[in-house]
Amino acid sequence: MAPAAATRRGFLTGALGVGAALGFTACGSNAADGTAPAAGGPIAPSITVAPSPAGTPGSGATPFPSFRLFTDESMNFDALFGLGESTYGISEAGEVITAVNQANAAGADYDGYVTAFRAMGDRVATASDAATAAGDHVTARDTALRAASYYTRALFFVLGTAAPPAEMPLYAEYRRAWDRGIAGAGLAIGARPAAEVLDIPYGDGGLRAWLFRPDDSGSARRTVIINNGSDAQGVELIAYGVRAALDRDWNALVFEGPGQGAMLFERGIPFRPDWEAVITPVVDLLSGRDDVDPNAIALTGWSMGGELVARAAAYEHRLVALVADPPAVDMWRTLPDQVRKIVDPGDPFRTNLIWNETIVPGMTPEQRFTVAKRMEIYTPEAHDAALGGHPTRDFAAVAAQMKKFTVTDAAPQIRCPTLVLDYEGESFYPGQPAEFLSLLTADAKMVTLTAADGAQYHCAPMAPARRNEVVFDWLDSVVPA
């Protein structure tokens, strides 16, 4: 796919030169003419369909449509999740389009996007407050979850605005809405119990988790751990697994690990590569519960979570099934060659000198946001830099950390049946799902979701229901009730 501006859930790919030749881009462009659109250019406030020049990069696939809400690829991709997740009631198509129209009218830049979706979140959160006061618990729940969704839309781009330190306050608004929403009377049609809030022993302060159950009978059920990625929030996992699990009589557990949610925004704790250190305490806790079948615990990982759970499953062998959606074999390879070539492992001073004096000064504001956002998850310094409105200055440290996120050696040690998802138009980890599959020694299956089902692009933003059908049909086949 053609290069474009910063794209949600994408890692830094494309050509990176220096000075006037700088071409620092992220993956995921669906530009109709095969070129990167100019960031910030407003388009008509409506949904249009334009042909895309390619399918999976390098595959020779035939073109397929791309829905255009924004000219800027990053905002367009993010907004598609807002539309797709309306299937599960955590957003409303009309509210999403209203926010899109407002952002386009304001100039379609990051400030306008954040302002529009934050305002929509505020509007719906106010409705939730009023419903709570009136005792209308269903409306209070539904509006709270939608508010959390809109705050999530805004949260991704806040580092690119004039007020990047607003990241933590915006996350706090999200959490207030999320906490109210999951405390409500259920998430699916019919009666469902509220989520149980759990504190999982882990380091200093533990991990916050939420356990959803089909009912409160206490029956020992199959349980799926739904592992998020690098920049989504828990409310999106309602659409990407929780509701589907409940409808099929599974328990579902969602949690915030290092680098995610409050762990990053409030405590400044970045991702760690040895993800088994995170998943094993989760399995420990679940295995000791009467309402969990300890012999039927599965693990799914969404987006960057696909790499994390693959590493965890290589060492946590109590898991009975694994879904990597999609997996990355090596995060370091998601950076452009030109970036990787400036790294001298034996001379971090030289690496940072080139980075700070040659590379960063040549970036556009959009590129600086991309770097700050994509790298805030790896080191405390990178997170502090992002809150200060600029990319990390210690790129050598980020590079050293990124190189640890690989499953080349770990994948062959996975013992449980594994489902590998890939996507037509996957431009974040192109080719890596198939490479991961080739490393596995356990029983494994790969499914590629396609444009024919409207499920193209990384994580199927327009088709979470189709994605869930694939995932849970497979889980039901390998983990019988």
Runs in which pLDDT lies below 50 for 5 or more consecutive residues are 1-63
User: What is the typical, i.e. mean, pLDDT?
Assistant: 87
H/I helix tally = 16
Instruction: Quickly name the level 1 CATH class of the largest domain.
Output: Alpha Beta
Percentage of residues in helical conformation: 40-55%
Query: What name goes with the CATH superfamily of the largest domain?
Result: Alpha/Beta hydrolase fold, catalytic domain
Oligomer state equals: single chain
End-to-end C-alpha gap: 41 Å
Task: Briefly note the CATH topology name of the largest domain.
Answer: Rossmann fold
Q: Profile the largest sheet.
A: 8 strands, mixed
Give the amount of beta strand, in percent: 5-15%
- H/E element sequence: EEHHHHHEEEHEHHEHEHHHHHEHEH
- Shape, please? globular
Key traits:
single chain, 16 helices, two-stranded antiparallel sheet, alpha/beta, 2 domains, eight-stranded mixed β-sheet, Rossmann fold, disordered N terminus, 481 residues
Description:
This protein folds into two domains: 38-178, no CATH class; 189-330 and 405-478, Alpha/Beta hydrolase fold, catalytic domain (Rossmann fold). It has an eight-stranded mixed beta sheet with strand order 3-4-6-5-7-8-9-10, sandwiched between helices. A two-stranded antiparallel sheet has the order 1-2. Helix 3 runs antiparallel to helix 4. It is built from 16 helices and ten strands. By secondary structure, it is of the alpha/beta class.
